[in-house]
Design brief:
The protein contains 3 helices and no strands. The longest helix is centred in the first third of the chain and has 36 residues. It has one domain. Helices cover 87% and strands 0% of the residues. Helix 1 runs antiparallel to helix 3. With 83 residues, it is mainly alpha-helical.
């Protein structure tokens, strides 16, 4: 395995792990929001608490969504030059 491939695999693993942790943070923030609404202590700043992990999760999710397409395209182009 080439050095670049190992680095890319390490990056992909890191992004997947970050995406998982962000989903847990988002879930916790939603639970906090629901409790605040039930106790009638909701504020707009508390509502934004869930937006931060959700926004970051959008970018990591977009990367993970596009990754298979890029990998397939890269594999196709490298197999075409090897022949």
């Amino acid at each position: 395995m080439r050095f670049e491939d190992r680095e890319e695999a390490r990056l992909n693993k890191w992004i997947r792990q970050t995406h998982r942790w962000l989903s847990m943070a988002f879930t916790a923030a939603v639970v906090v929001n629901v409790i605040a609404i039930a106790e009638k202590k909701y504020t707009n700043s508390l509502g934004l608490l869930a937006v931060v992990p959700l926004a970051l999760q959008f970018f990591t999710g977009l990367y993970l969504f596009v990754l298979p397409c890029v990998t397939r395209r890269r594999a196709r182009s490298s197999s075409g030059t090897a022949e």
